[in-house]
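Reopening this one. Same input as before:
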Amino acid sequence: MAYMIMLVADDVDQLSKILEAWKCIHIDDVVFVDSTCFHRTGVERPHIPMRFMFENLGRGEQRQCSVTLFGIVADEATVQQCITLAETIVDDFETATNAMLVAWPLPIVKGFLKRTARQAECL
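Same output, byte for byte:
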């Protein structure tokens, strides 16, 4: 079963290193979304209309303070590989204050080509 991975990190330099590490295991179809951290701005959360664009959320006092990555991987073993590689860069996610990673199963996926993982030494 395929999985969605979402990684949120404060440090763009760390994200570049994570993406390089993930390329080693052929995770290269990743979507980036600039994130606005409301908990850091001290500003009340704005009303988000039914139809909105992500880039319009960071108006006024809010500022982009992180980047969110989304990617689909083939199975849970690949999720674990992504976690292991990312933790070599951001430290243990259980204690990291600058990043978090979540993953959830995708029972229905259309258009995702399962790739045959080639063996590569990444660690």
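So the earlier flakiness isn't reproducible anymore. For the record, The radius of gyration is 16 Å.
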